[in-house]
Structure formats: C-alpha cells, structure tokens
User: Fold this.
Amino acid sequence: MTTMNRQWILKSRPEGEIADQDLQLVETPLPEVGDGELLVRTTYLSVDPTNRIWMSDQKGYMPPVEIGAVMRGVSLGVVETSRHRGFAKGDLVSGLGGWQDFYLSDGKGLSKLPRLPGVPSEAMMGLLSMVGFTAYFGLLDIGQPKEGETVVVSAAAGAVGSIVGQIAKIKGCRAVGIAGSDEKCRWITEDLGFDAAINYKTQDVFEALREACPDGIDIDFENVGGDIFDCVLRLINFKARIVLCGLISQYNAPEPVPGPYALGNILMQRARMEGFIVTDYQDRYGEAMTQLGQWLQEGKLQYKVDVLDGLENTLEGVRRLFSGANIGKQLIKVSDE
Amino acid sequence: MTTMNRQWILKSRPEGEIADQDLQLVETPLPEVGDGELLVRTTYLSVDPTNRIWMSDQKGYMPPVEIGAVMRGVSLGVVETSRHRGFAKGDLVSGLGGWQDFYLSDGKGLSKLPRLPGVPSEAMMGLLSMVGFTAYFGLLDIGQPKEGETVVVSAAAGAVGSIVGQIAKIKGCRAVGIAGSDEKCRWITEDLGFDAAINYKTQDVFEALREACPDGIDIDFENVGGDIFDCVLRLINFKARIVLCGLISQYNAPEPVPGPYALGNILMQRARMEGFIVTDYQDRYGEAMTQLGQWLQEGKLQYKVDVLDGLENTLEGVRRLFSGANIGKQLIKVSDE
Assistant:
C-alpha cells in the first residue's frame, strides 16, 4: 500500500465560477491510525451543487470549509485499517470523507453499508444515498403528492430530479421535467417514464409548461431557481407546494440574484414554499433506503451515474454540474473497490 | 328616504397608481326591491390594499372587477327594506356591498351582525371583521407561534399588522413591528405593547431588525414585500414561518417587481413561506370573532380606526393606504347608523 495521500485543499473562496487556483491538489503522507480510529480508502466521490455553497462563506446549513482545509465531500470507501471496534478491514462505508484518496475517521458520522447482492456500489451513490433520500423525502414529505396531481421538476435529468419524477409516477402523478438537452429530455421520457419534458435551452419554457401541464402545477420540485422557477410559479394551482431543494442557477452568481417576479402568485394561490435539506431526515434514512431499494428491485426505479475517472478530475466533475454536462448522478471514481 | 344612489364605477384599469379618471362617482336611481331581496344602506365602507388588486386584471383570488361595474368593497350597513325572510329592517349586516350608498342583495354572502352592548359598530369594521380574522388565522394557523419566539410584522401600524403584534404578545412572543413614522412606532410600542418598532423611513431596517431581534426571527407576518421583506429573510431562524399575507409595496408597480434576493435563506433555514387569504377561513369566522371579542373585553386587544367622511372620499381613502397616511383601519363613513 502507498504511504502517500492526495488531497484537494481549498485555497481561496471562488467568486462566481470556481477558478483553477481556488483549489489545489497536494500530496501528503498517510496519517497514522490511532486507537479508536480507522483509515478509509475512497472508492467513489460524490460531487454535488452543495460543494459550491460549502466553498463560499455564506451562512448555510453547514459551516463553510476553512481556507487551507481539505475540501468537504460525500464519498464511498473501503476500510483499509481499523483500530475501531465498530469497523473491520474491508467494510464498505459512506460519509463526509472529503476530496482525498484516504481519510482518517473516529467513526462518527460514518455509515457502514451492506453489500447487497446484485446492487453495485454505484447504486449506493446514485440512488440509495443522499441523492435518493433527497428525492424521496422532498417529494413525499414536503410535496405531499396526491394521485392525479401534476409534478414539475427542474434539473430533471440530474441525480435528484430524475428520481423525483419516477417517484411522482409511482404515486400516480403526472411528471413533467425541465432539462437542458434533447438527449436528456429523451432519457427522462422514454426510459424513465416522465409524461413530458421541456428543453429549456431551445423551448419557450412558459409556453411549453402551459402545454405540458393542462391542469396547472400542483407540486414544483425546485432545483434551479431563476427564470425557470418564475415560469413555474406563474402556473401553480390553488394550494400548490413548492419544494425548495436547490437554486443551482445562482450558486455561481457573483452578485445577488433577484427572487421570483411571480412571488405574488404564491399569495394568490395560497401556495406553500418550503426549504428542504435532506440531512434533517437522518433518522429516517433507513426507511428511504428500504423503499427505494424495493422499487429498484421491482424495476420501478432506474438511476444513472456519470462517472469521471480520477481524483485529479474532481473539479472538472463539479463544473459539469453547473454546465449541465452530466446525465444522472455525477461521480468521481477514485480507486477500485 | 332618497330615491337616488351614488356608485363608484370602475372606468379603466389603473396602471401604477390609481388615477382620478380610473373611477367615476355616478348617480343612479335606487333599485326596486324584488321578492326575496333586501336593500342595504351603507354606513361604513372598508378600504383595503386588495381593492387595488381587484381593479387590475391580474389572476387573483377573486375575478377582477369588470370595467363599467360598481367597485367591489367590504361594507357595513343597515337593512332599509326587506322582502327576504332572513333579514328585517334595521338589521346590521356586512358583506361585499361595494362602493355605493345603497345596494340590493339576495342575502347570499351577507352576514347579519349582533349589536353587542358596548361594542361600537366601528369595532365591527376595525377588529371583529376580516381585518381581525386575517390577523388571527394568519398568525395562529399559518404562523404557529410558540412562546418565546420572535414575530416580525410589516405595516405594523396598519389594520391587520397592529392586531398581529398584539396577538403575538398574548401568545407570549416577542413582537417587533416595522412602520413608516415615529408616531406609528410610538403607538405600537407604547399603546399596543410591541417590544420594538422600526421606522423604515428613517432607520437602516436590516441593522435595526438585527438589534431588535437578538435571537433571530421565527415568524414573519408579511404585508409589504420588497426591500423590507428581504431584510427580514436575511435574519430568519431555522424552521421559520413566513405568513405571506400581502405585498402592498408592489400592487401599484407598473412593471414586474423582483422577488426577494435572500430567497436562498428560505432553503438554508428550511423555512416555510405560505400564501394566505382570509376568505379560505370563512367557516371559522365565528371562532375568531368570539376569541377576538373576548380579548377586547378583557382589555388585551386594542384597535384603531381612521375614519374619512363621505363616500366621495373613498378614492382618497385607498390612496392613504399606499402612502401610509392611515394609522389603524382605514374606513369611509358613508351614512349615520
């Protein structure tokens, strides 16, 4: 085994888009494993829009990553060395391992994952993880879908959005997705079963939404914000629910971004908009994993992972989220399992 | 009794502020009272921010007033003639009587009000009416205040806001009001018992709010929108509730107005914003009237009415709402009881 580790260090807070010099990949010696500790080798790293929030100093749901610290990130890994009673060499674990080849842990915040027959570890990152839990609790708990209702989801070919639409279908709703390419639109309608898809780069989103949602919009699962969100708000129904899950269109904005012009429609339609972050549901992750796993085995749910090879390409992976290059969950493969 | 009626007719939809020529006061003969009908003489007319919404053609919670029709408005009146079994001459009634001296009704949507000893009919318009019910259901049902929480209310010296703060105090909360003059600020703190008041015309609202809400903001009762709303959103706590009751700052705007720049904080704080219109609670008005009446008799609630004399001054009354000239509920006195 190597004696060296590679780590992505946050050097400065990005202004607007992440610049190359905001992060640096450095080599450091592997740490000693103390009593009660374990060393994990990262296999997959999850890159997520929230990484961009953690790089900034804005008041968020977690403290900003300190300048000079290893960049925070969710990862899947295998225990290499354990001096902790709860973990053994070879265990599959997930947690906030960070952007690095190896990390030391005292076990806190680390989840030991089962090796399920027939379920590749990619599924653990693309569906049976925070990604799937976000779709599950956001849509079901905050959105409260009822049969026959219309659910709109933005970033619909993304990790979370693609699952939201499928759960909406399972619940008997009409699912309409907004995505950024014809290929993505085809995937979510033809493979995933969305009722309609809108390519926001080539279509008039408002007109297309009006056509795709003849009975109006009952639930908006909002991942994007900005103009697209405004179009949705103009079409919401009485007592609509807006699951405010992400605002990726503005995470890179160097200046404050105005909120929706159609705010008044939330008042007129007595709609409810609620901010949602999946970590609040930590004590119910088991429920979500069981249900999502069952739907997966029943063939009711599909997921897609978009894997970029090599820790050195992590920054490129994050940029793909903001340019919309990824289809499905963007992962970085760091080492073989 | 006179044989003539005066009616305010909507001639054109205002663009921006209401122009004199958008409405016209005309004289028309009193209508005949048919079988099953009654004629009501208006005593007080309520002018409300929502009047401005009804004049526009925006998709609202009620259809726009038709061009050429009598302007819609809530009023208090006395039955002059009745050929309806449910009402007798002399009954006190309230409903959407419109901007006119007299109106004909078939009784639908009309409420017969008790003549309570010691309760002037002004109270029926300033507290024991939609005004009070809006404060009551908005704060208690949507806001769900808990003892010790901080409640911020904008337009705090207005009809609804002044009652919201007092109910917040009754429920053991810290009440902070935002208003437009030192006189209003003094009234809500010294007479109504608000813990703090901010004059948005002379103070830095964000800094003043931060000082007045040392534990952050748990509930925002929003009547105004715009910059003030943005300042509030920057200070909301985890799981804050935003009762979206009105957006008076933008009803006169001729151009679309951007929503709050601090929208992202609703996500970060997992806050809930909910649109609210009191008419949805019609079947619970009795509950609110009983409770508000009890608090009034116990000396726990005060209200203020700002009465302008004469139906011909109705438009001036509406303008006072937008300039912030009124303190408490703006009424038009149309005739003696």
About this structure: Chain B touches chain A at residues 58-61, 225, 244-247, 250, 256-277, 280 (CB under 8 Å).
